[in-house]
Every structure is written in C-alpha cells, then in structure tokens.
Amino acid sequence: MEKKLRQKPINLVKVVLFGPESTGKTTLSDQLARHYNTVWAPEFARKYLQDKWNNERKTCEADDLIPIAIGQMKLENKLAKKADKILICDTDLLETKVYSEEYYGGFVDKDLDKAAKENEYDIYLLTYIDTPWEADDLRDKPEERLEMFTAFENALKTHNKPYLLLKGDKETRLKNAIATIDKLIAEKDNLYSFSDTLEGIDMPFSHETPTNFNYENY
To answer: pTM for the whole thing?
Structure first.
C-alpha cells in the first residue's frame, strides 16, 4: 500500500492548494490551470464522499481515509503526465493527514503519515478563511474555521513545507499565487511538458481538467 501513496518522479513544478473547507481552493486551482495552460488534479475525496452520502447517507469514516489517499495519488500521478511544466493539485496527503488528526482523535494511519511527510511539492498555497462559507452535503463545522485553519498552518510549519498564505479577493489571491509560481518555474530547468510529446501529432487536446472529470477511470 505504501507504494500507492507515493509520487512518481517527474520534473514539474508542483503546487498544492491547502486549507480548510470553503476557502476557494477549487476556484483557484481552475484559475491557475487556465493561466498556465496545464491540468489540475481535483480533490478525489469530493466525488468519493458525495457518492457515499448519496448511496448510504453516511459521512466520512476513518476507514475511508486510505482509499481516499490512494485515489488522490493515483489521480495526481496520472494527471502529472498530461501537465505542461506545472501541476496544480487541489489537495494532497498532508491535508488528508490533518483531517484524520482533527476528526479522529489524533489518529493517522502510519503509511499515510509517512507519505504525507515525504511527498514533495514546490509550494503550498494556504487559503485563509476570509471567504464566505458555502454549505453542502459534505462540509461541516463552519463555527470552527479558525481552529481548522490553525491546524493546517501548523502542519506546514511542523513539517517544514514551503507555503504562501493567500488572503483577499479572488483577483488578489490569483495575482500573488502567479507571482510566486513564476519564480519557481524560472528556477527549474528542463521541466516536463506534455505538449512537447505531441509535437507533430495532429490531434485536439485541452489542458483544462473538465468539471465532469471521470474519477472512475483513475
């Protein structure tokens, strides 16, 4: 199982949107992917847990965390092969680890814990809670947004992860994220580009991750 939770090596700038629920991570993931003409890896847990709620009327349980983590990494590793220099990730295993700790009395599966610490990303974009709360079937604890934000920031600090705190409106967040990512791209040589592998092939291709992305293929 440990192997299923690890990143496959590929020379990309990898960016993670990180933070509590309803703080604009998915919106910014889509904006960044469009700006850089690349793909973004959606949050596997959303589809997984929505299906569970629709079919069983049950919310997330501790036993769901490993299947979610495996699904997320499978999704990330496959989409990385379709990226152009940069891969935007709507979440990562460190986020799953934080939720595990906060919701299940500090419990974290040892393989999840290890992978969450060892998987590497160039920058975490930590989204602040200065966004309106938007309720849905899966989101809860709107009254504990500050506590959850603190848990996420503490995880980044504890594990020495590079991060940028994003506050403000959508335009401000996007501008600050792009400025930081541009510097990271400039610092790396020979970045992988899916477009380069298609040179000479006459075929249409969209770099955007569609909103109706079929998780079952992953």
So the answer is: 0.87
